[in-house]
Amino acid sequence: MTGQTALLAVEKVETFYGNIRALNGVDVSVNKGEIVALIGANGAGKSTLMMTICGAPHARSGRIVFEGTDITTMPTHEIARLRIAQSPEGRRIFPRMSVRENLQMGASLDNMQYFDQDVEKVFTLFPRLKERIDQRGGTLSGGEQQMLSIGRALMARPKLLLLDEPSLGLAPLIVKQIFDAIRELNRTEGLTVFLVEQNAFGALKLAHRGYVMVNGAVTMSGSGRDLLANPEVRAAYLEGGRH
Amino acid sequence: MTAISDTTTRQASSPYGEAARQALWAALLSFGLFFFFIGLESTQDISNRLILQSHWVTLAIVVALVALGRFLFIAFVIPAVDRRRANRAPIAVVDEKDQSFIRRHRFKIMIALLVLYPIFILSTAGLQGSLKWVNNFGVQVLIYVMLAWGLNIVVGLAGLLDLGYVAFYAVGAYAYALLGTEFGLSFWILLPAAGIMAAFWGIILGFPVLRLRGDYLAIVTLAFGEIIRLVLINWREVTNGSAGISGIPKITFFGLFDFNISSPDYILKVLPESIVTLFALRPSGAYYTIFLYYLILALAMLTAFVTIRLRRLPVGRAWEALREDEIACRSLGINTTNTKLTAFAIGAMFGGFAGAFFAARQGFINPESFVFLQSAIILAIVVLGGMGSLSGIAIAALVMIGGMEILREMQFLKIVFGQSFTPELYRMLLFGIAMVVVMVWKPRGFVGSREPTAYLKEARAVSSTFTKEGHG
């Protein structure tokens, strides 16, 4: 961790929805080749941090730096062009477009130059999508839609992949498939992943490092294993306790 | 009444007895209902006294029609529907090879029919008789097809609800009318100019509404359409206000010959003598009409061609993605600002082309041609046809605009409803009924399915069950 330059550095970021402060000076960093998980209860500000990194909404104060570029005030599409790909909360696939068209939309940054090889890569990762290639996104099951959402993000050849609640509303078996796929991507290609999860156990087991967020601020951080072992984290997020 | 809900009972007994009984009830009910609406009319006589006038014959006809309709419905329609429901086989996947020749080549056949249409009319109705059919029917329908295809880019593909589309039509029309009458420029120079000007206004409209979607966008575009119309009415020095602009120059055949009988370049004077005598061509306004028909056909085909090509390009796909999910688009690196503006600009451009053509065809324009109702009709055609579907929109335009024109021909209705009956006054009623019927039966328009632009082996149309209702 130390000595490495962070790929993404979020420094003292505050984000507001109108007058309501959602993020209260958040510091998070993600190094190259890491999987970093952010866990927290409902309304802690996890998704807001994710969206703030993408520039919708913009941070009111603080700084977000990606590969040495200050992206705090950049418009969303320009941030995406720096190869920060996102699989947003609620998946947000294009329901009336086919699986293939959805993947094409993901590849629009490179003008389809690498489409064929990248699409093969997505299909080896998620063979289910290959069976559904000409099917419309909206007709896929929840798990398949999540795979499509991640696959679409991967088509952009990201340097940093942001995943917002990839396990939301999915059967445990599918969650395992998706987490395995993320681990595989990280191991074989060194893909850097920053994921937001409510499924604290799965996320911390997957991640190299983790952050715990409470009321718009990071309260704890450490390696995934340490956090899993931490009695406070266990009480709050793993054993059904309340924070 | 139990017979209605219980199919087996109804089929066991003869449907005719039940139908007759129901018809009687319907007749009684309609008699009660229409007695005061149709049967009696209060009018003033010469000495200003209120007297009751009776229309017993009309009332009898209406009641009889209702009874007959109910009888036919119960005796034939319901059993037929039941039989079809019982026989309905599981939906088979249709193989492309098994489809008939007509089905496979339906678009080519349609275009061929459109090209042959004036020739057919000419041969059946003669030179003068063809005028009405080619102009009122052919050209009129094709103008709306083109307008609806242009609006389809904005509403159907990009999903931006535009209620002021007629503004761009007006911009194109006035661009040609003003520049043509003031500077005497040719249509062929002014056609692209009108398109560019409309596209420019499309961008002007686009900028302030970039952040709006759905209802809010619709209201602003509606206001924009009205602003353009009010400017045209009030800016008298330039637009001549409500009086409009007349004497708009006709279109020439690429400057080779024209259609003014007095002009030295008149078509019959330019054509070789042998051709004129061979076909026994006489001076007539029909040549110009037929020329206009082919011109608007070409312009409409251009619109369709551009739409089909754009859908396969990144910008077209970005439009469709934008319609689906704007936030997802942005997070994929798509500049939604530019995407929206190009949709507005290109949609407006085709509106401008159609406007220039309209001005040239009419020879006279005033702001009355560009009222909100026009926008509503064009939008209705897009919605009826099925958002995004070119063939569906063409069918809808034919039914709506063609249907209105056909109503003018329905003179026999006067025999039924009296001499004062003017069928074309009921065109809006027809329009409304058609809208309701189509939206009940096919809530996603005539052609609700969407053809994917990218596929592995064959294009499988996306069933209309999954396309959204009403919205783009």
From TrEMBL, chain A:
SUPFAM superfamilies: P-loop containing nucleoside triphosphate hydrolases. Keywords: Amino-acid transport, ATP-binding, Nucleotide-binding, Transport. One of its GO terms (molecular function) is ATP binding. InterPro entries: AAA+_ATPase, ABC_branched_ATPase_LivF/BraG, ABC_transporter-like_ATP-bd, ABC_transporter-like_CS, BCAA_Transport_ATP-bd_LivF, P-loop_NTPase. The keyword ATP-binding applies. It comes from the Bacteria. Residues 8-240 form the ABC transporter domain. The keyword 4Fe-4S does not apply. Belongs to the ABC transporter superfamily. This is ABC transporter ATP-binding protein. It comes from Tianweitania aestuarii. The lineage of its organism: Bacteria, Pseudomonadati, Pseudomonadota, Alphaproteobacteria, Hyphomicrobiales.
UniProtKB/TrEMBL annotation, chain B:
It comes from the Bacteria. Its main location: membrane. Residues 21-115 form the High-affinity branched-chain amino acid transport system permease LivHM N-terminal domain. It is a multi-pass membrane protein. The chain crosses the membrane at residues 23-40, 56-78, 109-131, 137-155, 160-179, 185-209, 216-235, 286-308, 341-360, 372-404, 425-441. It is found in: Cell membrane. InterPro entries: ABC_transp_permease, LivHM_N, LivM-like. The keyword Transmembrane helix applies. Keywords: Cell membrane, Membrane, Transmembrane, Transmembrane helix. PANTHER family: HIGH-AFFINITY BRANCHED-CHAIN AMINO ACID TRANSPORT SYSTEM PERMEASE, HIGH-AFFINITY BRANCHED-CHAIN AMINO ACID TRANSPORT SYSTEM PERMEASE PROTEIN LIVM. This is High-affinity branched-chain amino acid ABC transporter permease LivM.
